Amino acid sequence: MPANGRLGLQNNPRDMRTHYALLLLIAIPFRGIPSRAQSPVSPAFAAALQAKLDSCVNNYNVPGISATLLLPGNRFWNGASGVANIYSQAQMDTAYLFQLASITKHFTAAVAMQLVEEGVIGLDETVGDYLPPLTYVPSNIRIRHLLRHTSGLADIVANPNAANSWLLNPNYNWDPVLALETFGSNPQTGQGAGFAYSNTNFIVLGMIIEEATGQPFHEVLNTRILAPLGLSRTAFRPDDALPGPLVPGWSSLSAPNSYTDDMTYFLGTSFSSMVYTAGAMVGTPWDVARFNRALFTGELVAENWLDTMRTCINVNMGGGATGYGYGTMRYSFGGRTYYGHGGDINGFTQLTIHTDADSVTLSIAINRNNAPRGPIAAALLGVAFQQLTVSVAEVDRSPSARIYPNPADEVLFIDLPDPGAFDQLEIIDALGKVHWQETIQRSRMESVSLAHLVPGSYIVRLTGAHGKQLERIIVH
């Protein structure tokens, strides 16, 4: 029986690569996950976000929305609005699990990049380096092309018979190889010819991860991501049991643009086993947001490999998405750049995004497909940044110092209203870490070199006998 007990693949001699991978996984400790106390946003902040979420449910005609916002200073907000069930009118709740659909790819990519970082797999290695010949999957396709959707592989989910099998035989548990052989077709282009989104890419990637680690994917996922981050409300189906109630997702298999049928039966074992590492996960926005934030703050993958993940092909994917990288999508809202991933399947619309510059992470889950996630995300982010500005501004500004330039490049200047107005100067990042601290001499001008700061959003904090002044600055 093969080491992973699932794929049914023959042993593939690759200079003892599999044995090396297992030893490496045992030898390398987990990247440290810092323990942080988190606190909810203020009641006024929460009320403003809830009001906007309520208006989005009404304005965009969606049954319900569950959302999580993670903010600087380890503050958070969880909110829900609308209904979970359109017939019973059961209210939406943040405890509900959602089908994550293609956000699964984001998790799969994180695992793959960890293995790349550890030298277990290589971006320029090929499918044939790990797997025996597969129908419809050329052995020379490189792993980087799977991650970027530039392999040219046809999407098995685009085959109408694939979705028919979810409906007609919902409890069938597909083996990935058999699913590819049954619903696959010849590649549409050669690898590297261009971007073409295909679930097949990440199904094959999942098979490679299992072969390289010698473990089923759900065990790899739990060991590397879910358990270290404490994501107890996330699961990989059908291997994992549901860790809570799954919300109904509303759509129709017969009437376009109709959302009157519960898709729970349709999205059963047949669906999840077939889409596999491209779309089988379920979870809450709270767990998804914490994962996305941990990923892009370097807790799961080193910064140089994060730079690779953020290297995007420019492509308009709708909903604010402007590019696709290595298993991650680039978004633009309000002039800010975010990274994360979207997800779509019958009955569900998903989005998770994070911006390093302002340390803001948003995840939204909607129990209806074809929902306008872009405008909903933009609306919530607009409130978030307005409230963040207010929270900084709600400080005694008398006497007031002039802090410039903003944005700043190399040097920051502080014009003080009078000598002795402030006696302490600090520069703090979005997570509350102090990067610069000095005692102000009795002068009218201070200057600070910014050469030691990475580009991003910071707060200048002045304190003294006359009170406190906070000023948000951007360092280029």
**How would you name the CATH homologous superfamily of the largest domain?**
DD-peptidase/beta-lactamase superfamily
- Summed up, the helix count is 12
Helical content band: 25-40%
Q: In angstroms, what is the radius of gyration?
A: 24 Å
**What is the 3D shape?**
globular
Q: Tell me the strand order in the biggest sheet.
A: 1-3-2-14-13-12-11-10-9
List low-pLDDT spans: 1-30, 393-397
The name CATH uses for the topology of the largest domain is: Beta-lactamase
Strand content: 15-25%
Largest sheet: 9 strands, mixed
Q: What CATH architecture of the largest domain do you see? A: 3-Layer(aba) Sandwich
Total beta strand runs: 21
CATH class of the largest domain: Alpha Beta
Question: What number is the mean pLDDT?
Answer: 89
| Classification by helices and strands | alpha+beta
Summed up, the domain count is 2
Separation of termini?
Answer: 55 Å
What does this structure look like?
With 476 residues, the chain is α+β, with helices and mostly antiparallel strands. It has two domains: 17-35 and 67-388, DD-peptidase/beta-lactamase superfamily (Beta-lactamase); 402-475, Immunoglobulin-like. The protein has twelve helices and 21 strands. It has helices spanning 17-27, 43-59, 103-118, 143-148, 160-168, 176-183, 199-213, 217-229, 269-275, 285-296, 303-309, 373-393; strands at 39-40, 64-71, 75-82, 98-99, 235-236, 250-251, 261-262, 281-283, 313-318, 321-324, 329-333, 336-345, 348-355, 360-366, 402-404, 411-415, 424-429, 434-439, 445-449, 456-464, 467-475. The protein is globular.
